[in-house]
Amino acid sequence: MTKFLHKKFILPLLAVIISVMFIFTLFSGYLGEKERKNNIPVVEVRYPKDDATVSKIVTISGVASDPDGDKTIKRVEVKTDSEWFYADGTTKWSYEWNTYDVEEGYYTIEVRAWDGADYSKVEKIKVRVFKPEVVQSDAHKWAVFIISANFPENNESKLGNGGLYLAEEMSTYFIEKYGFPTSNVYILFDDGWIRSDNGFGERMETLQERYHQYDITYGAATKEVVVSYLENVITEANNFDDSEVFIWIMGHGWGDTDNPWTGGKLLERSGVFLWDKEILEDKELGVILSNLQSKKTCIIVDACFSGGFADKTIYNFPTFFLLRSKIPKPGRVVITGASKFRAGYASTTEGSLFSILWFKGLTTGEADGYRPGLLETGRPTRLNVFKDGKVSVEEAFYYARYMLKEDENLKEYSKMEPQINDQYPDKGTLRSLKGLILE
């Protein structure tokens, strides 16, 4: 009886055990897959190259990927000294490194990616930070071009890459015609990247990766970088009594395009959007430039509702004294591409309309002899006494104003009303007899 029970129950028990073991074996691979540790992401530095020499503001950039799917990458971090900082972007990322704040020498740049669970292996490159000495010459000239054309919003008002191309065209002319040192020419555009589809598409390459005829310094048009560049230019320019400074800003102005009378700017300041959605207001720029001692300075702000930068509203009328920017000073010509109450216009492939006209008048010589006219509207002159074969920044302004009013092809843009506050070489009714010439 005992043997019978033993055989009767032991065989089913063995069958159950074997079945459990079979099921466990069958699903162990699956469970192992589920419990397998996360695949770590991979990160690569594309720029600068290992052993490169860098200076000023460097756009460190590269790519990252994840075997588990690129969407799992949460962030990329960059370290240039003792602290990790977040880069901008994930699968294509960049980080602005300001080498003005460090000593000359060799530095290790470290980069890592994080997928929410694990970090990648740290990618390392070594670069040399080099700060060239100031060349003692009579060419103490600085030019800063700031273009925030495609600031990150999903709208149809992007200004494309035309502003960058116009800035490069102007900078080349300044270098070749006026002798601006390439080391003193700076172009800041969006977040430092060129995008496909003329600004509407994906990141293609950083500004520094592109071919350049001249060794111009490029960077991003973010608030931090813009302020840093301007402060460094001011510090350098103040070392010389004969310094010349040219500043050109293009982007979206801050105002209400649905308000046909004042653009909502009657008791508001003018401002320009920078890439990080920060607004650079007229008074803020005035504070930044308050220490600039150069007596030969031209500032152009080409944006909608920008007249406040010149302390003007419309038709050359001054802004309310409590809203003055304090940018205009003796030795400065401050120009805006539109009045404080009006919108401006731009081509997505060529740049802002007023600046295109201003630059044409400057480079072709067509603006030679142009005068202010009634309410600074601009008018040509037939008297040779006003023509000297050179074009001042003021003459180019009056030429652009005149073309906007008189050119049949530009009639629809005539309401832009560009503004000027000319205090070169000083205040006074005769100041415009001596124009500011970039030579």
What does this entry look like structurally?
- By secondary structure, the chain is of the alpha/beta class.
- Among the domains are: 42-129, Sandwich (Immunoglobulin-like), CATH 2.60.40; 141-345 and 421-425, Rossmann fold, CATH 3.40.50.
- The protein contains six helices and 22 strands.
- It has helices at residues 2-35, 162-178, 223-237, 282-288, 353-364, 393-406; strands at 42-47, 53-54, 57-65, 75-79, 84-86, 88-89, 92-98, 105-114, 123-129, 141-148, 185-189, 193-195, 203-206, 217-219, 244-251, 271-273, 279-281, 297-302, 332-336, 346-347, 351-352, 419-423.
- The strands form six sheets. Strands 14-11-10-15-18-19-22 form a seven-stranded mixed sheet, with helices on both faces.
- Helix 2 (162-178) links the parallel strand 10 and strand 11 (185-189).
- The longest helix has 34 residues, at 2-35.
- It is elongated.
- The N and C termini lie far apart (119 Å).
- Residues 1-5 have low confidence and may be disordered.
TL;DR of this structure?
It contains six helices and 22 strands. It has helices at residues 2-35, 162-178, 223-237, 282-288, 353-364, 393-406; strands spanning 42-47, 53-54, 57-65, 75-79, 84-86, 88-89, 92-98, 105-114, 123-129, 141-148, 185-189, 193-195, 203-206, 217-219, 244-251, 271-273, 279-281, 297-302, 332-336, 346-347, 351-352, 419-423.
Structural class: alpha/beta
Under CATH at level 1, the class of the domain at 141-345 and 421-425 stands as Alpha Beta
- Treating each run of at least 4 consecutive H or I residues as one helix, how many helices? 6
Largest sheet composition: 7 strands, mixed
Mean pLDDT: 89
Strand order of the largest sheet: 14-11-10-15-18-19-22
- Structure summary, number of beta strands: 22
| N-to-C order of helices and strands | HEEEEEEEEEEHEEEEHEEEHEEEEHHE
Low-confidence regions: 1-5
Which outline best applies? elongated
CATH fold category name of the domain at 141-345 and 421-425: Rossmann fold
Strand proportion, as a percent range, falls in 15-25%
- Approximate helicity band: 10-25%
Straight-line distance between termini? 119 Å
In the CATH hierarchy, the architecture of the domain at 141-345 and 421-425 is 3-Layer(aba) Sandwich
Rg calc: 30 Å
